[in-house]
Amino acid sequence: MTGPPLVPFQQIVVKVHSRCDLACDHCYIYEHADQSWRTRPKAISDEAISWTALRLAEHAKSHALPSVSVILHGGEPLLAGPERLRRVCEEFTAALEPVAALDLRIHTNGIRLNDRFLDLFDEFDVRVGISLDGDRSANDRHRRYADGRTSHPLVLRAVDLLRQERYRHLYLGLLCTIDVANDPVAVYDALAELEPPRIDFLLPHATWDDPPARPDGSPTAYAEWILEIFDRWDARGRPVPVRLFDSVFSTLAGGPSLTESLGLAPSDLVVVETDGTLEQVDSLKSAYEGAAATGFDVFRHRFDDVASHPGVRARQLGLAGVSRTCRQCPVVRSCGGGLYTHRYATGSGFDNTSVYCNDLKALVRGIEERTAPSSASPAVSDPEALQILQQDLTRYTLARLNEELGGRGGERWSAAWELASAIEETSLGLDEIYAHPYTRTWLHTCLDALREQRPDAVELALRLEAYVAAAAVRSRLGVPVRVGCPTGTLVLPTLGELRLTDDGGPCEAEVGGGPDEVLVTVPGGATLRVRPGEAGPGWRTPRRPGLQGWPGLVLEDVDPFRDCFDETVGAAGDTEALSRAWALLRDAAPEQAAEIASSLTTLTPLRSGGPSVGRHAYGALGISLDGSPEELAAALLRGFSRAKLRAIGEVADLLAEDGAWLHPAPWQDEPLPASRLLAGAYERVMLAPLDPAAAAHAVLALKALRDAPEPTVSGKRLIAALHTEAARD
């Protein structure tokens, strides 16, 4: 089978005992199609333990895995007894210690758990997950002894042991198999009362041949049951992590699934049976006899052999591994087509939707409807929030640079860093520097230089002195700041540049003063006075065209990092065309013009071409000032739409699995990936006041995106807002 590269196993389920002391009637091992347990030894042998540990260490080393999880399972693993479990822990610890971090876990019904087991688990840091289906009536529905006796009091005793202070760190959580005949709120309350570190709610294993029980006939009974728990959990402040809910949150926001039963992440789990045979995920035993078999064992085969097995590969294909119906479904990123086992039907194998398909749709949409207003990024609807988040991103990038330097900047960097911290605490001077579009361009240039080990990397980073000096001037701090000038020119971001040496030789300057007059003490002790906004001998400062309604606009032809565009930058030149284009925009598109004026601070003139969005430079646009006012007005709208969408995408995940699908584009014959369709629609919404036909195209594109799988919660909110605006136009 062709497909993606081999995915190494990072979770190994080791069956240490194949029998159980309970007779749960929903157990996939004993009650479903595959009955291979009957022919296997009760307990895993010493030889199988040793070979499994050896194979796992070999696998971890060959794939450079930082960690692996070993899950001790059954049957009921505690039936193996303390001595056999000690042997398992010792073998795996010894084999993995030189290779990778070992995460040991055990999943048990808990009825045999006692201090002796827990002391052993404490010694080897084995965390314990316990199966419990809720209160006594819910648990007794399925989890009973063969003679019908309840197991509930013994399970509660086991949980109480784990909650003791000396064992609390071993408490992994509770696993609850759903039965819609139980009261969901009573089940949740009973589990939450036990203060588990996590709750896992599991759909009962079922296939199209053996579908799940639906007592009331509802096609979404399981979703309704789970959503009742969600509402209770949410109303009580989400006191305990619930992996099912966390996984849906993650995928709705564009992140990965957190559970095998949902999402498109490739399977990374293999099972070792008590006789050393290697099998696929256990739940496949619900499908048919031999569904989990691979034909491999730990004595003769490597884990890589299993990873190459067609059945394993089929669960590692992501989107390509789900049915055609699923690939077109808007919630497929969250549900992932459901658990592989739950897709099985005689005749078509696993090429089907999940038998819980309607439940999964209703569950994902139900959680999204309940949480979207609070979980979507404010950047998609609030321009002020977008600006704040962009400044926070610049702060974060500066912190990254400080970390990457690792002290290589010496005393000069330390002094500038400390002064930046002082300014941050006492004034808003740094906010203006963080808001300067080309500050983050400089930061990323520094990070690239450090990564590439360029010889000028540290000197480039020491430009921090100039940024701090500009912030000190703007905040009227009154503290002179020493700035190195390696090319003989003092560059003060947002203020201007001053030539200090005729031959371009390096020097230092001391910068003070305030925003009305900057004082620069040069080599030899002379003090030069320059005014931002006014040219002087050797002093260049960005131009302010003074457009009505756009007073803060700067034509930036000074900053050395303004050349982050695809086209060549030039001088500011004549601004008459810009003035006329701006007047046209204010008249024809007043709302768009107002947003541009509040968000776009900097235009960098290009010699030709544009509009162009700079690298990490929100608030700036590269644009040629040539052309008619109509052409320039349209270029401003197009450029701003691109800049804003890029800026939103830097602080909010809008799309996931982009490129996995193609969508029809109303303005061209070829279909487009979601990102390009969204960009085209956004641009046309912005252009609608100048081109009414653009709005009609945007509406069609946004309708396609609204029902597409790629948009996240934030993306859907943005698409809805754009659709409303486009439909209005």
Automatic annotation (TrEMBL):
GO molecular function: iron-sulfur cluster binding; metal ion binding; oxidoreductase activity
Keywords: Iron, Iron-sulfur, Metal-binding, S-adenosyl-L-methionine
Segments forming domain Radical SAM core: 6-243
SUPFAM superfamilies the UniProt entry points to: Radical SAM enzymes (SSF102114)
Listed CDD domains: Radical_SAM (cd01335)
Cited InterPro entries: AKG_HExxH, Aldolase_TIM, rSAM, rSAM_sf, rSAM_SPASM_FxsB, Sulphatase_maturase_rSAM
PANTHER family: ANAEROBIC SULFATASE-MATURATING ENZYME HOMOLOG ASLB-RELATED, RADICAL SAM DOMAIN PROTEIN
Protein name, entry field: Radical SAM domain-containing protein
Species of origin: Streptomyces pristinaespiralis (strain ATCC 25486 / DSM 40338 / CBS 914.69 / JCM 4507 / KCC S-0507 / NBRC 13074 / NRRL 2958 / 5647)
